[in-house]
Write the structure tokens for this entry.
Amino acid sequence: MPELLKVSITEDINRRSGASLRIIVPMKQVPDMRQVKFDTEKGKVDRSSAAAEINPFDLHALETAVQLKEKLGAAVTAISMGPRRAEVALRDALARGADSAVLLEDSKFAGADTLATSYTLACAIRKLGGFDLIICGEKTVDGDTGQVGPELAEHLNIPHLAYVSKLVEAGEKLVAVCDMEGEAHIVEASLPVLLMVTKDINIPRLPTFRDKAMARKAEVTIWNAEELSSFADPSRFGIEGSPTRVRKVFLPSEEGRKGKIFRNTNEEAISDVAQAILDFLG
Amino acid sequence: MKDYAGVMVFAEQREGRIHPVTYELLGKGREIADKLGRPLSSVLLGDQLEAEARELVYHGADRVFWYDHPVLKDPDLVNYKHNIVRLVREVNPEIFLLGATRWGRSLGARIAAALGTGLTADCTGLEVDEDGSLIQIRPAFSGNVLAQIKTSTKPQMATVRYKVMSSLPRDTHRNGEIIRKQAELIPSPLTITGKERAAEADIAEAEVIVSGGAGLKRAGDFSLLAELAELLGGTVGSSRLPVDSGWIGREHQVGFSGHTVKPKVYIACGISGSPQHLAGMRESGCIIAINSDPSAPIFKIADYGIVGDLYEVVPKLIKNIKRLKRCNS
């Protein structure tokens, strides 16, 4: 058990939730942003240029869930909305310790902004039945909004703790440290609650070869829009349920830059640059 | 058609002090409200913050909705959300803005979901188009492109990055109305039981950053950059490679997987300028690039570039800055 996660939530929470905690980890498949190439002409990311992976922030959420499972006993469900190929990311989650996985896949889900995404996830989580904890990452590397977690909590009418960097000892309640820019808040919450965790909370484990092999054979549940219909208003799915629209994408202008490049390193050039630096600093 | 009532800005406060991003939002909000011919309002929740409510007027608000209760001293998510959602339903602003601070993002997303409206994260630009809709501009794909976003529902909500918009000069002659609202309090399932000062991420606040990259030959050579940084009252940064090599701590990393910085002066030494690095520093005030490869992408966004070996250029730069400082003093 890593030092960071000294949880002693113990019997109290176990009793509340029956046999063990039910934890849901929402996740997203994203392109590997360290490798991905940008088509600067079209202002698009070239998805074929990099492998897809689990959003790195989500791995910290999954690790938090799996550590709680090891400590207290829990059933961890990974859930993702995306195209069929996102099943690969969910198998990776199974290899890293999730017990079950659900993929929400339907063309009706496509083009969703954070409001429609969080709504669709909320409907699927209702269909799954009860839960004690939802643990998600602080943001995705491609969308970079950090909105889906709090929006999901709002749809489910549960509180959320944002930017959790540490879970600390708790009795009847869960206690977490939330990093709020220069200030950390220690917050107590009762369950159910949604935790949005930061990268500081843990170091995600790597799956073993054996885990990977097992995950390849495991079942991933796939639900389409129809299967969520008794829990949802389908007009709130996908592009139809998304109030925000990207109108256009353009390149940042560097026109304001002087762009004065010295091609040799003589004293005059260096002196000019030194003067410019001091001028700029006033 | 509902009658919409202009622009509303969430006044973020910490320990009773207004976060400066609020004044920046009022500055931008004033401009938008004037363009629309509508009022600019602000909502402030806190404990005994009447003087701060007046400050919001001095910085551009026509109306301040002021909630005063000891429970609202701390950022109580449940009660903040509950009261702001009620106010938005009552007042009907067409635009609602928050700072893209951690608190603003967390609270804003909840308010947007409760209202069933769209929210655009971390905007760096706001404009109004010919039919009066808000155009929200935000960096996408780790800052390599900018996206223009429009929202079809009201209020059009956005969180806006700190230190991007300009606040208006404080003017105590500005007129505005402070409207005292009664907070409706509900028992919160969340309790803040303590607060700690967290470790400062000083690189995010530094005015000068001298960064090193693949052009450095060994870990110890960061001392050369540190000397230049110290001379300018700044700090040392790094691209990803030296961090991954264990030459310098991750807290120094600038770029997509590290910090996003916006110093007055950014000096990139031996950094070629991958899109992932540029994402973290392209908004710096003045960018100086030192690299031996004239085709390095970093030169494309530099104000000043020197094509040369950093081991030759940096010591000369230090010498020149010392000389110029002596002349000026």
